[in-house]
């Protein structure tokens, strides 16, 4: 099962865990990415996330399919937030289920690393004295 979502609404780990729930899976790994209050030695006031939604959803699904193929995991939920987020707010949630811990940890890391490399989601950091677009694909 694959569930991918881009949303301007607050993300909720409990609902992501419920979506991915599978009585045949004993291992669950998650990654929650939240907004930090600093970057490059500067205080972050907020982040603005933008994306090309149709392409982002397609790419997120492709990443999930690759993770299932590569790590033989069962269920994947990927949700990413867009819009204005403040320090402490959740920007991304990834949940992976399977029968074994190694596969879910490996798949979770693969997904977040791939997401940052290929999904067309852009982040602007707004500081107290300026702003800067952050390269989504270093």
From TrEMBL:
It is an enzyme of class 2 (transferase). It comes from the Bacteria. Keywords: Molybdenum cofactor biosynthesis, Transferase. It catalyses: 2 [molybdopterin-synthase sulfur-carrier protein]-C-terminal-Gly-aminoethanethioate + cyclic pyranopterin phosphate + H2O = molybdopterin + 2 [molybdopterin-synthase sulfur-carrier protein]-C-terminal Gly-Gly + 2 H(+). SUPFAM superfamilies: Molybdopterin synthase subunit MoaE. Pathway: Cofactor biosynthesis; molybdopterin biosynthesis. The keyword Transferase applies. One of its GO terms (molecular function) is molybdopterin synthase activity. Its EC number is 2.8.1.12. InterPro entries: MoaE_sf, Mopterin_biosynth_MoaE. One of its GO terms (biological process) is Mo-molybdopterin cofactor biosynthetic process. Pfam families: MoaE. Heterotetramer of 2 MoaD subunits and 2 MoaE subunits. Also stable as homodimer. The enzyme changes between these two forms during catalysis. Belongs to the MoaE family. This is Molybdopterin synthase catalytic subunit. It comes from Sphingobacterium mizutaii.
């Amino acid at each position: 099962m694959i569930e991918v979502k881009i949303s301007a609404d607050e993300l909720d780990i409990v609902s992501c865990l419920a979506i991915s729930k599978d009585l045949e899976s004993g291992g669950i790994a998650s990654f929650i990415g939240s907004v930090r209050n600093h970057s490059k030695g500067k205080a972050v006031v907020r982040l603005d996330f933008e994306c090309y939604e149709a392409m982002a959803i397609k790419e997120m699904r492709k990443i999930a399919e690759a993770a299932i193929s590569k790590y033989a995991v069962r269920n994947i939920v990927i949700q990413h937030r867009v819009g204005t987020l403040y320090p402490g707010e959740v920007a991304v949630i990834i949940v992976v289920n399977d029968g074994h811990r190694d596969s879910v940890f490996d798949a979770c890391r693969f997904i977040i690393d791939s997401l940052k490399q290929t999904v067309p989601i852009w982040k602007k950091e707004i500081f107290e004295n300026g702003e800067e677009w952050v390269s989504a694909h270093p």
